[in-house]
Amino acid sequence: MLHDSSDEDEGGGGGAGKKSIPTKGPQTSLNRPVVNHVNTGSPLLTKSDYSSSPQKTTTSHYSPQPNFHASPTPTQRILPTIPSNSSNNSPSTSLRSSTNTNLFPETTQPSMVFNADTTSIKSDDSSNQSEGHLHPSQQQQSSTRNQDTKAKPANTNNLSKTLATTTSSSTGTTTSSMGIPIDRAPSPSPSLISEREREENERVERELELKRKRLQVYVFICRCVACPFNSKQSSDMARKHLKITLVQYGVIKERFLTFLNGKTRIEADEAFINAVRSYYEVFLKSERVGKMVQSGGCCSDDFRDVFRINIEKRVRSLPDIDSLKISKDTVLTLWMSKFDAIYRGQEQDQDNSNRRLSKSNYMSTSAELIMSKEQLYDMFQNILTIKKFEHQMIFNSAQLDNNDEQAATIRRELDGRMKQAESLQRQRGLMPKFVHKEMDTLYVDELKKSINDLMSNLESLPVRGGSDQKPLRSKRGASHSRHGSSSSSGMHSSTKSLHNDGNSEENEAGLSKLAFVLNFNVNITCKEVRGLKSIPTNRIVYCTMEVEGGEKYRTEHAEAGKPVWESLAEFPTNQILPIIKVKLYMESSGILSLDDNKLGKLSLQIDPTFNKTNWWIDMVKIKNASADELKVKLDVRMEKPQNLKMCGWCYARGKNVWKSWKRRYYALVQVSQYCFAMCSYREKKSEPTEMMPLEGYTVDYAEPDNGLVMQDAKYFFKAVREGDVVTFATNEENERHSWVQALYRATGQSHKPTPPVTATTKSTQAAGTSGQKDQIDADRSKKTGFDEYIQSDPCKFDHHDLFKTLQTATLDFRLNDPYCSLGWLSPGQSYVLEEYCSRYGVRGCLRHLYYLNDLLDRAEQGFMIDPQLLHYSYVFCASHVSGSRPDSSASTITMEEKDRFNEIKERLRQFLEHQVTNFRFSFPFGRPEGALKATLSLLERVLTKDISAPISRDDIRYFIRKCLENAAYTNYTRVSDQAKIEGERENQQQNDNETIYNTDDSPRKKIDDLIHLAELCIELLQQDSEHYQEAFQQYNDLLMEHEEIFWSLFAVDMEHVIDQQPIESWDSFPLFQLLNDYLRVHDTLSNGRFHQQLRDTFAPLVIRYVDLMESCIAQSIHKGFEKENWKARTRGCATSEDMLWKLDALQCFIRDLHWPDEMFGEHLEKRLKQMASDMIEACGKRVSRHFEIWIKKGGLIGGTNSDYLLPSECCVMVNVILDCKAQALKLCALHSGDLHQYHTRIDEYLEKILGDMSRALIQKLISVLDSVFKKLSRYDEGSFFAQILSLAKPINEDGQAYVLCVNANLEQLRQKISDEIFTLNIFEEWYRQQTQFVFTWLGERTEIGLHPYQLACLLLIIKKTHGSFELQGVQEKDLNSQAYLTIMQRLHFEETANAVK
């Protein structure tokens, strides 16, 4: 057992007076109860397993690359290893305690030291850096490590020495149960041992046990990786994205804030900026998102999807604009590209960091792809905290690179498991407890079936060679490669057919010799010839190469002065001992010569072990050839087929075969994974002369037989079977060892041959062969304590306990890697764990129960776990426990599985209840996508009592209803805390939820806080509808009930705040408007309980407000017109505009309330319309009364009546009535029922007032004309004053005065009265009455002529007023009436008459 130690640990180092840690009792086995040796607590792996001092102990998550520190003065100590006779029946512990165990406790572990004579190899020299591919999550850590296999190759041989560690400054030596010395001080009396030392002793023991368990698990894992035969790495698993860390989350928020502050070069319009601002405020700044990032369940796609969904709703809701040539889809694409630019960052330093990050991400992507064996080894080293040198020792000693050794190990394991199953059938007391007694027999059959399936899987594997050897090939011409591809493919097809033939003939009594015909490739490269000095340099020479019985190959031509070639010839052959021939020719110079001159030849017998490179060999000269000694330089290699495991020359003698003691060439041939045979061959023969199937034989080393010892037969070994003994002998001990090891793998025997201890010879000291290397590795492993782990019998371990340790460590490693895994293992991890379970018989139900327990532990610790993963494992376990497996195969069910399942089911139910209750915080913004829906689906499965029975919808709905009720209270509590609305509760009120506020807060502040809370509540429910409604689609009524409960909690605070508002305060109406606008368009909450409560709460307030406004407007009319100065305003006077504005504002306010009750809404509308009608009528009465007073007033500029100017106040009054009439349609017309019930009456009333005003104005203006004509009447012919007034010789003064008066009043009316139509009507009527008045006055004087003065004034008045009214817009037909034409005719007549006079 390996353990690190330091001189200065918790015990205080090696100083005097420090008490040592005693060790009492035997060493505990690996599969003793976990609860007795492992700390209960957090199952997370920590760095502190290998910390060198207590100051470095941390509580952080497991780091895959612990830092090891060597002790400067180590005390020699070898830790005990796992006993090989460990009990197979470990007591079961409870699920909760077993899974919560801390596999790597947070303690200070001593550092590790090798002592090899005077040389120490410290653990600092051993690096965790893997050779070849590094695990992606360990690229940066491993890059700074030293690689001791390269940096200190001299120390590698010292690994065979004693492995020593120190745990404290203790001295003395104790011996473990395995006989390995452990340096410790003698145990003091129990009275001298303090409690702290006892705890320290227990802690050290736990660490030792955990280290032993990790090493043993790693040995089994290495075997699964080295030779998998049950599972394959999946290449179609969903790729996991890189998760966002807290540091990256802060950088992302900073980038978006920088964009919003306008500090980036990204151009954007206002709509996109608003969308980004909403995304930043609502999503990025959300506390729930921060917790999701912390839980490791958030990736960049989640951030992007939330923004995409948000802008899609914004853009889709916009109306289509035909004039725009850009589509909405194009807008979305542009916005997403800008979002990506913001997300990535635009600054140069950010770009550089992104490039570095992307490179590291690229290096870590191999974790999600198919991993090589080296990567798998490296990953599980990090998972189980195995050091690099420990892996190297295990790798070399277990021969993990030797496929034959691994296949033989599997065969021995399966044979052992089959024997164990048979022993269980005889000893039923060793079986686990089942739910039914009848399952005992079924359990044994189940074990045998699984073992037979494994054997079938192993048998289906193709036969592979013992080592991956690459042929040495040189460049050759195209003319010499015609057989390259055909020979290779032929060898492959022959091997395949041989394998198939062997399988088909296994059931026969004997094997055909044709099954052992082997296919070889002989590669010969002729490079150079020496000894041609006597031949002219310009002569052409060449070589031919052949394997006896095959084709000939010829090299290219070369001059004798430089006979160099690079010609490779490949020869397929079935002979295991072929003869190759090489001949040297010189081209004949004669014209009539038919044959070339042969200069030399070479004949050589080779075997599959033959391999020579750059080999100079003498050629036999031909007579009459050159006298020089000929040598040729060759590369010769014979490629072995994959099913040839060993070959060589041996002596042998047996009872049934090889009955004579003679030297033969033997080959160990594999036909299939379970069929091997020892065959002997002769030269030039392809079929074996004799063969011996190895089934049932046991091989071992043997003592020399004096009667058989020969010069080349010194080292003996035997193959023994009942009734037969075959003795073999070799010339070298290394060759014997290789034969024994190869036969040991082939026979599948449980007994491992041990070489006899003999004097070391020169041949045994050589370490050139693989067998000698394996022996050295085995010796080194045995001395350092690893041999017990490697040689331990897997059948004697509780693999369920080991697998639980492995799976827990793997899950912790996975949750801390850079990927957003959500608990899903990587393809490589799943592949290895699946291989482990299949190979070592881990029950599938227990495997998933362990996994469920680990997942629930991590979920409770804050990790994000995919509910689909929980669902998959739970359904598997439920179907198994209920006996309704989907594969329709009967399977045994143990009491442990049933008890664990019931405990997991209850724990899972509680977890899912918490998840659904806190769905907003467990799945922020609906992330991960589909997780909530999967959680509800899993909840339905968990609540089902029997998996085969139909799901009870009532029970599920009741459970979800309770969860959503609690969720409503939880959500409102958190949002009210956020809005700072909820204060201290009254101590006297125990049964309600009323909130007590500080007395310092004003009612206005409280209502503002309540409105803010309402906004947050609306935003919360809108987010729920957007992100969670789809998941609750089957429970829409329960979700509606959840929302009603949520609003009922809000209603308690709302009632309390409104009750505290002053009676004259109307600040609460914005709250009603906000809530009602949200509720009235809601599909389910409209006219719901809270909506009705809201209506009932605010109805009295609305009625009181309307009553108060009616009284206020009436008072303003009464007091306003009494003090009105009739100054012109926009449309009327100050009082009228204020009245109309109040009426309009009141109606708009009530209308904007969108009162939910239709009847009450109609009542309010009629009430307001009638109020407006009454107020306008009151206004009209007061204006009419004031108009009658002001119309009598006028400006007397010249002191005559013709100087009258209409008062502007009268025009203002007219404007008031006109404004009231214009606003009456909007203020008095109903929107339902009798639309003009109130408008018609008030419109008629105002029309009457305007008519009266118009007549009064015209009458006043005509009176001015009457006064002028009264003056002109004094000039009538025959009157008393005519003569007198004529003496003054007047011209047309009265006419000019009247014209000026008309123009002034026309301008006054035009500028002061706002309604042009009304003004034009007055002008038309005024002109008509004026013309009629003149016509009547002239008609009274038809008998008399007009005085010249009268004529001059009339002409001036008629012509000037005609032009003035024409300029004001009076139509021509009204101007040129019949009366006007008659008047003009009379005036022209009078003018002519006066001219005649």
Automatic annotation (TrEMBL):
Compartments, as annotated in UniProt: Cytoplasmic vesicle membrane; Synapse
Superkingdom, taxonomy of origin: Eukaryota
A GO cellular component entry from the record: presynapse
Every PH domain range: 643-748
Sequence ranges of Polar residues compositional bias: 25-78, 104-146, 748-773, 988-1000
GO molecular function: lipid binding; metal ion binding
Low complexity bias spans: 79-103, 154-177, 484-494
Region ranges (Disordered): 1-201, 459-506, 748-778, 981-1001
MHD1 domain: residues covered: 1052-1183
Compositional bias per record (Basic residues), positions renumbered to this chain: 472-483
Transport as UniProt keyword: yes
Biological processes annotated in GO: dense core granule exocytosis; synaptic vesicle exocytosis
Biased composition (Acidic residues): 1-11
Record's keyword terms, sorted: Calcium, Cytoplasmic vesicle, Exocytosis, Lipid-binding, Membrane, Metal-binding, Synapse, Transport
Name of the protein in its database record: Calcium-dependent secretion activator
